[in-house]
Amino acid sequence: MPNTNCLDGIRCPKCGSYAPFSIEATTCCTVYDSGAEAGDLEWRDDAYCRCMACNHTGVVADFRMYYVLNETDGVYASPDSMTRADAEAFLAEFRKRFETQGYYASVKGPIPPWELRLKLEAES
Question: In the chain, what are the domain boundaries?
Answer without folding.
Answer: 1-63, 66-122
